[in-house]
Amino acid sequence: MRDVSARDACAARGVPYSEEVTRTRSLLLGLVALVGVGLAITGGSSTASAAALAPPDVSSLTTSPVTVYSAKWCSACRSLERGLTERKIAFDTVDVDANPSAFSRARDAAGASNAIPLTGIVRSTNTVWVVGADVDAVDRAQRGE
Question: 66-143 architecture in CATH?
Answer without folding.
Answer: 3-Layer(aba) Sandwich (3.40)
